[in-house]
Amino acid sequence: xxxxxxxxxxxxxxxxxxxxxxxxxxxxxxxxxxxxxxxxxxxxxxxxxxxxxxxxxxxxxxxxxxxxxxxxxxxxxxxxxxxxxxxxxxxxxxxxxxxxxxxxxxxxxxxxxxxxxxxxxxxxxxxxxxxxxxxxxxxxxxxxxxxxxxxxxxxxxxxxxxxxxxxxxxxxxxxxxxxxxxxxxxxxxxxxxxxxxxxxxxxxxxxx
Length: 208
Prior knowledge:
By secondary structure, this protein is mainly alpha-helical. It has helices spanning 6-26, 42-46, 57-65, 69-73, 77-80, 86-90, 97-111, 120-134, 139-150, 154-167, 181-195. The chain folds into two domains: 28-115, no CATH class; 120-192, no CATH class. 58% of the residues lie in helices and 0% in strands. Helix 1 crosses helix 7 and helix 8 crosses helix 9 (139-150).
């Protein structure tokens, strides 16, 4: 049996990523509009946090069209997005840039492709875990979970601050739970299922 070269493996992995991303786009009404991008830069100019990104929103679309998804998924950009939707509102061809970035974020988490020395994805996972458990965020728990997933020794340096906050009643020791947590979990589970359902879109009518 012939061996598969590392180069061929890389190509196959990239093709699978592209296939998965197209599936994600099909879940976004109008997600196919990415092909219409004019590369005008309106999205980047509208973005309030583009200066902190290593790849601008305009470049994200260009790299995707070039098939370089791995570079996008390993960038900080998809985790920095402020979700303000300014890029989506101002796009002259109606590309839903923010929703595309969310799709890329989901794809990155599914494939464990994250930017180096920028563990914001660990913060995201910690936040989701707490919401699933208590129905709301719990700041001390969020800090502890995030630190354990990134740099546990950070907690030692934060003990004096935590003590001061607790003494002044600024932080509680135990999390508060919302009512009807089972219903909330069921709602979140249904949302995950809905992400896997590709909406039906009518075929464009043929022109005569």
